[in-house]
Structure formats: structure tokens, C-alpha cells
What we know:
single chain, elongated, mainly alpha
Amino acid sequence: MSVIIRGVIGAVIGAAVGFAIYKFVGCRTGACPLQANPWIAMVVWGVMGAMIASGK
């Protein structure tokens, strides 16, 4: 499998994990930016998933 395809799959899985963390863990006060905003959580976890999956 290509490194690009693995990276894309990892990014999608990471974004899903980020959304799940936002949805089920969350942040009630809004003081934790990674858990208070679903878009930020999905981007950060998506990048982490892509990096892990592509082996970089």
C-alpha cells in the first residue's frame, strides 16, 4: 500500500478519534482547546494519525 494512501487512512481514523474525544470526553468549561472545539480536535488527531500511519 502506498505511503500516501496509508497517510490518508490514518488521517481519517485520527479525525474520527478526535471527534470521539470531543464528543465523549469534552471540556465543560471551554478552557481546554483540544477538547472544547471539535474542528481543532479533529485536525490535531488527524495529523497525528497521518504521521503514525505513514511511518514518519
